Q: What sequence folds into this?
């Protein structure tokens, strides 16, 4: 069923029907006839009503820009050795969280990293695939469990290479969902990127002491 919103189309149809019967009606006159058919005094009143009824175009939903980065390193060590280095707290303290680390290596277990100058950062483990994959949600603020709006996801993936060395890739994602301003979000992401790059450099030194090759 047509409504007053269809007035212009109805006026066009009316003109065509009248023309077929040999009667020519200007477009403006057809609009006035349709307006009166809907009970309005004239076309101007109906046009105002149509404008008021038309929904205002709202802002288009923003498409989130996914924020993710990866850093990787090839270590001259067997994959089993590298897995221990990234999942055992005594090793993590040596290459990453120098003032304290704890790893409860199971889904739902907690990760804790401590730096005196930054604070204590906590994570919750999501996935453990020995020798292959280690995933946890990581708080973006100190002394708090990771929660939506203040967490990223950290993914370690390990790949054994033909020469016995191991590629380690660290991916951190979810920066776009952090509840902070754009400038702070970018700074947090860049700080994390630099932090992981420096950490992997430390991991490489730990995996291959001077004078040693693959373990």
A:
């Amino acid at each position: 069923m047509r409504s007053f919103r269809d007035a212009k189309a109805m006026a066009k149809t009316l003109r065509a029907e009248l023309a077929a019967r040999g009667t020519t009606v200007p477009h403006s006159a057809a609009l006035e006839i349709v307006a009166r058919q809907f009970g309005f005094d004239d076309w101007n009143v109906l046009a105002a009503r149509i404008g008021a009824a038309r929904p205002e175009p709202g802002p288009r939903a923003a498409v989130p820009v996914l924020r993710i980065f990866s850093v990787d390193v090839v270590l001259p060590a067997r994959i089993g050795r590298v897995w221990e280095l990234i999942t055992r707290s005594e090793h993590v303290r040596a290459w990453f969280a120098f003032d304290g680390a704890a790893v409860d290596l199971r889904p739902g277990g907690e990760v804790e990293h401590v730096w005196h100058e930054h604070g204590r950062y906590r994570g919750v483990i999501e996935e453990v695939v020995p020798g292959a994959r280690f995933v946890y949600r990581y708080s973006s603020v100190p002394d708090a469990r990771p929660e939506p709006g203040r967490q990223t996801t950290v993914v370690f993936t390990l790949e054994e290479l033909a020469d016995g060395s191991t590629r380690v890739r660290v991916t951190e994602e979810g920066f776009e969902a952090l509840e902070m301003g754009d400038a702070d979000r970018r700074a947090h992401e860049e700080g994390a990127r630099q932090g992981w790059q420096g950490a992997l450099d430390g991991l490489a030194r730990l995996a291959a002491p001077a004078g040693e090759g693959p373990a």
Residues 61-65 have pLDDT under 50 and may be disordered.
